[in-house]
Design brief:
- This protein has one domain.
- The chain is 85% helix and 0% strand.
- The protein has five helices and no strands.
Length: 137
């Protein structure tokens, strides 16, 4: 099933992905100077950044599927959203548990990378307004 995504929605997702990557880049630059094992730490940050982008895209897909089914039963849509929210969070919990148990990458920086989604959610409206003002002027 192909979804119709309006250009504004695509640009918003692109902006948020850019903010997540930018956030992780800034954290990586700081982390290189303070980490005891920079490679271990940067790999954790990369895993967290990828998980943030995954969560963003997954939420976007679920949201648009719900909007496409807006004429359907509200209870069915609500169950769909709840089911996919649980799937999204459980997949993050599983990956984070594997990271913590195996210690393949740094769990702390992985968690910080996950916070990139929060940073994107808070910064996107502000940066979007700045970008729009810049193009209008």
């Amino acid at each position: 099933m192909m979804m119709n995504i309006m250009p504004n929605d695509k640009s918003m997702i692109k902006e948020m992905i850019a903010i997540i990557v930018g956030f992780c880049f800034v954290v990586a630059v700081v982390d290189v100077f303070f980490a005891k094992n920079p490679l271990y730490s940067l790999l954790g940050l990369t895993v967290g950044c990828v998980l943030s982008v995954y969560m963003l895209i997954y939420m976007n897909i679920v949201l648009f599927r719900c909007m496409d089914a807006s004429g359907s039963d509200q209870k069915a849509i609500e169950k769909y959203v709840i089911k996919h929210s649980i799937i999204r969070y459980m997949s993050i919990v599983v990956v984070f548990a594997v990271v913590c148990i195996t210690n393949i990458v740094d769990p702390r920086t992985c968690f910080i990378g996950l916070l990139g989604l929060k940073a994107a959610a808070y910064l996107q409206p502000v940066l979007h307004k700045l970008r729009v003002k810049k193009t209008v002027s």
